[in-house]
Specification:
Layout (H helix, E strand, L loop, with lengths): L1 E8 L3 E6 L4 E4 L1 H7 L9 E7 L2 E6 L11
Antiparallel strand pairs: 1-2, 1-4, 2-3, 4-5
Protein name: Cold-shock protein
Length: about 70
């Protein structure tokens, strides 16, 4: 699923808005596990969501087994 970063804080995680217009909080642990050092408002990311909770966040082309197309 695709989303846009709305806000990010090193202490609380991030908030992303999906292409469907739904807002989701992303925990600090999920942001840290992404391997991304910084997220900026407006940045496009891919997310995995289960039961309303974001479990993975990444940028296509960055990460395990990801290739830039």
């Amino acid at each position: 699923m695709q989303a846009t970063v709305f806000s990010q804080s090193p202490d609380t995680g991030a908030v992303v808005v999906t292409d469907e217009g739904l807002s989701h909080e992303v925990t600090v642990d999920v942001v840290a596990a992404s391997g991304l050092r910084f997220l900026r408002p407006g940045q496009r990311v891919s997310i995995t969501e289960a039961d309303g909770v974001i479990t993975r966040l990444w940028i296509v082309g960055i990460g395990d087994d990801e290739t830039i197309a």
